[in-house]
Amino acid sequence: MNWNPRLRVALCAVLGAMLAAPVAAAEALKIGLILPMSGPYAGYGKQIEDGVRLYLKQNGDTFAGRRVELIVKDDTGVAPEVSKRDAQELVIQDKVDILAGFGLTPSAFAVAPIATEAKKPMIVMNAATSAVTTKSNYILRTSMTLPQVTAPIASWAAKNGIHKVFTVVADYGPGHDAEAQFKKTFVAAGGEIVGEVRSPVKNPDFAPFLQKVKDTKPDAVFLFLPAGEQPVAFMKGFAERDLAKAGIKVIATGDLTAETDLDAIGGPALGVVNSFHYSEAHNSPENKAFLAAWYKSYGPDRPAFMAVAGYDGMHLIAETLKKTGGNTDGDQFVEAAKGMKWMSPRGPVSIDPATRDIVQTIYIRRVEKVGDKLQNVEFDQVPDFKDPGKS
Amino acid sequence: MRDDARNLAPLQKTARWRRAELGFWLLPVVSYFVFPENLLLLSQIAITGLFCLSLDLILGYAGIVSLGHVAFFGVGAYAAGLLASHGMGDPLFGLAAAAASAAALGYATSFLVLRGADLTRLMVTLGVAMMLYELANKLTEFTGGVDGLPSIDVRPLFGRFAFDLYGRTGYWYCLTVLFVLFVLARRLVNSPFGLSLRGIRLNVGRMPALGTPVNRRLSAIYTVGALYAGIAGALLAQTTQFVAVDVLAFPRSAELLLMLVLGGSGTLYGALIGTSVFMTARYLFSSLNPQYWQFWLGLMLVLIVLFARGGIMGGLRSLMQWRRGKVQ
Amino acid sequence: MTVVFDGIASGMLLFLISVGLSVTLGLMNFVNLAHGAFAMLGGYVCVTLLKHTDVPFLATLPLVMIVLALVGVVLEKTLYRRLYAATHLDQVLFSIGLMVMSIAAAHFAFGDNQQPLVLPAFLQGQINLPGVDVGIYRLFLVVLGLTIALSLELLVRRTPFGAKLRAAVDNPRAARGLGIDVNRVFTLTFALGSALAGLGGALGVEILGLDPGFPLKYIVYFLIVVAVGGSGSVKGSLLASLILGVADVAGKYYAPEFGAFVIYAVMVSMLIFRPQGLLGRTVAH
Questions:
Q1: Rounded to an integer, what distance in angstroms lies between the CA atom of residue C156 and that of residue C138?
Q2: What average pLDDT does the segment A353-361 reach?
Q3: What does the alpha-carbon distance between residue C9 and residue B267 come to, in Å, rounded to a whole number?
Q4: Of C217, C249, C256, the CB nearest to A207
Q5: Helix, strand, coil shares of chain B as percentages rounded to 5?
Q6: pLDDT recorded at residue C276
Q7: C-alpha to C-alpha distance for C24 and C194, rounded to whole angstroms
Q8: Mind telling me how many Å the CA of B227 is from chain A's nearest CA?
Q9: Which residues in chain A have Cβ-Cβ distances shorter than 8 Å to C117?
Q10: What DSSP line would sit under C3-65, residue for residue?
């Protein structure tokens, strides 16, 4: 048989294409993001989405040979039935492989049964109540828990000459949790709570609470307020009333001084000591790379903990898929993710195999001016801190 | 003369079902087969439709403007939710409990809306609802606060039909409840009682002269409205299997009023149409643009008001009158 | 005593933002629930001027009022005018639609985060008098609020414009018959209401913050002031704001567990006993 050279080439091309086809046709990896994109918590949703997309930009959008396809759905933040509906549609209609996002705890709670029934991995990228990971065996968390970031500041305060504290928290679930954890840790370390107030969630004016604090004269006031206008209002009022001059310090969780609202607080934020898991000022090569990429794509907006949680969530998915060889079967995925360790822009993190929750270093920081920006400068830390809310 | 007074024929005529109405009720049945992957959305439209219907009863027929109707919805949701989270998860039992508690609250607060102009009633109902929200928030240990009740376990309906991921049982459940309650409401508003309500709305000063106990009637319809809203709340709790204080939040009341006005108040169907249009539009806009869909939704509302007075039903009515005018 | 002063200042801010709504609702009988959007716009204009120009804070206030007045005139002539004859419910639908659009637009234009605002040094801090600590900015709000209240009263009761306005509201037909240009009066009144809203919004940034959700967050408070005070009455709005401000602040100070309830409880009780509001007027239509 005289093989025509052109025919030979054509045959090779066809064979080559047939062999290559299955590889190129690997199923897309569909990730459904349920985030608050509108409404009062839209800021969270944008940060998380930006963090997620930044990871894809930096590391390519192919995980274990599968191309990542993101489907973003808005749940408006405070409507659990919408979160549930979004999750149901993502699973049934869009046939996603992984559910992710969840800006607020009620969204995560409402969606957990769907993750269980559909056996889909669920990556929580913000919701911070301890109990979230207990609602489904398919939940993995890459953000933080409120007790995890509250306990360290309480210990630090007790060890650093702060004996009498007045607590001011927002009067809703997370506020109550922060208050409870702070009291537990602070009192156990020998401190005294001289006053406590729960401010209404819709609170246009902090004047009466600030006055109460001033009249009680504690060493410090522990603050937990939801991100938004309340931290700004409180801190401005604090400065206006010269409470700092009266020798009262402000201690808080890092929610108060998150990079997204720090500039709006301005000068009054200087000197506030707080504990949290991520600071833009964290000095590490991973963070530097993260920041360089962030500012190129999203500057001048500043990245905060929510963006990093989204970023790390994608990293977790990518690394887990490497281990499972691209298999997103719920049980196998979660098994592979347990115990995963990596270096995040925030510092070293890992997924606790027992609780599927995040274990990370909590830093004690002070707000200082660095260059022309306000930053949370780390000066102490509690490494490998597990969520105390589960013990 | 006596015969005329007893002649209910005009009432009976309006009470008969028209073809368009039967056509309307075929739509949800057809939707089940056309949109099998969106049943949770359709169920939520049915639930909100029932909630909107309850507002139409008090606003469209009795003229009581309320921004606090969400209070009854929330009470119903919590009644069903609390029962389900404490082991008494039978759906119909939950509905009954929700209806009873919401009706009781409605009756107890009805005296607040008996007098005052529109703005007054608006603010009083709003104030009561906001206080209820704050109360539920304060009692976080009991209600679960913003994070919701710990675990709601709804038993299968009639012991056989479980509420599953696909939402099939939930859909037929909500739709059936809506239909039954709608038929009852329709009967109510076309009855002499219903007529007296319209009289009260149009000319409250004249009604006592006709021997109508105005306050009793208003209390009665307010209680019925509360009962319907409570059932809607229970349906949401049972199909979502989650209840948190957001079921008592102000935005729900505001949206409800919006949907009713959009559809056209005082027609019962306006409530259902307004709800369907609003929620579908919101769903579609949100899918297209998760961040800024509210802009397009707001624009749609503004355009509808500018071009169709009296909401969609009002617009349809004008359209039909215009056509009739053309034929003549 | 500081608590009382804080309450008065709190009430005064509430008055400054709400008085515009009282004007449009009471005097023009138009339910403008987008009022908060005008206030928000005023806040954003102020913040933008401070960020990108060298205009000092106090000078931004009249500029904000002018911008908002112009916006009010344009919107009134193009949109609002068509709905004067519409039912209140249709007006509600319209104004909420407008409000929702404004929230999304602000979100798009300015982002979600809080807008930073730094007061000039002379408005910061406190004056410590015996028995009461007086915040300087709050004192400024009280003085400004009283001035505005007084000016409005004078405008409505003592000027020719005020007389024409009262005539146009009481009986538009007769007013037209007397040669009063009712349309112009309404346009100017709407512009005034918008300007006041903008001023209130700009003044409120320091205490209430500024983000796209502003209109929805505070619409309830504006409505409370107008309902309790009686729509259309400037004195009523002032009185209602002060009562609510003091009650709210005192309640939170002395009984913080009930802090959130106080303002609603006060409103509901006052409306039960005086459904038309403290100094409400019944307008003939």
A1: 27
A2: 95
A3: 47
A4: C249
A5: 75, 0, 25
A6: 78
A7: 9
A8: 22
A9: 264
A10: HHHHHHHHHHHHHHHHHHHHIIIIIH----TTHHHHHHHHHHHHHHHHHHS---HHHHHHHHH
CA distance B125 to chain C (A): 8
- ipTM for the predicted complex comes to 0.88
For A56-65, the CB contacts below 8 A with 24+ separation are: A56/A314, A57/A293, A57/A297, A58/A289, A58/A293, A59/A314, A59/A318, A63/A29, A63/A317, A63/A318, A63/A321, A63/A322, A63/A326, A64/A318, A64/A321, A64/A322, A64/A324, A64/A325, A64/A326, A65/A23, A65/A26, A65/A326
Q: How near does any CA of chain C get to the CA of B55, in Å?
A: 13
Where are the strands (E) in C111-206, listed by range? 126-129, 132-135
d(CA C211, CA C106): 8
Q: Across-strand partners of C230?
A: none
Chain segment C67-78, per-residue pLDDT in tens: 999 999 999 999
pLDDT of A203 above 80: no
Task: Determine contact, residues A224/A174, Cβ cutoff 8 Å.
Answer: yes
pLDDT at A158: 94
Q: Cβ separation of A93 and B293 shorter than 8 Å?
A: no
CA–CA gap between residue C39 and residue C142 (Å, rounded): 18
Asked if A162 and A220 count as a contact pair (C-beta separation under 8 A), the reply is: yes
Q: Which residues of B touch A42 (CB under 8 A)?
A: 291
Residue identified by tokens 């900015």 is C137
Average confidence score pLDDT of chain B: 89
Contact C10 A204 (CB under 8 A): yes
Residues C86, B309: C-beta atoms closer than 8 Å = yes
Q: Residues B195-218: pLDDT tens digits?
A: 888 888 888 888 888 888 888 999
Q: b/e for C12-40, b at 16 or more Cβ within 10 A?
A: bbbbbbbbbbbbbbbbbebbbbbbbbbbb
DSSP conformational letter for B242: -
Measured in degrees and rounded to the nearest 5, phi and psi for residue C284 equal -80, 135
Domains along chain A with CATH numbers: 29-144+283-356 (3.40.50.2300), 147-276+364-390 (3.40.50.2300)
Q: How far is C237 from chain B (nearest CA, A)?
A: 15
Quick check: C261 and B134 CB within 8 A?
A: yes
| Rounded Cα gap, residues A339 and A143, in angstroms | 16
Cα C241 from chain centre: 11
Q: Which of C88, C96, C223, C267 should be substituted to probe chain B, the one whose Cβ sees the most B Cβ atoms within 10 Å?
A: C96
pLDDT at B1: 45
- Quick one: angle between helices C2-22 and C234-254, nearest 10? 140
Q: Which amino acid is at C260?
A: A
Listed by start position, the domains of chain C span 2-273
pLDDT at position A18 is 54
C231 compared with B128, residue with greater pLDDT: B128
Q: Which residue of A has its CA nearest to B287?
A: A73
At B165, the pLDDT band (50, 70, 90 cuts) reads: confident
Test C90 with B261 for CB contact under 8 angstroms: yes
Task: Give A108's contacts in chain B (Cβ within 8 Å).
Answer: none
CA distance A182 to A187: 8
Strand A249-253 relative to strand A273-276, pairing: parallel
CA distance B244 to B233: 12
* C90 touches B at CB < 8 Å: yes
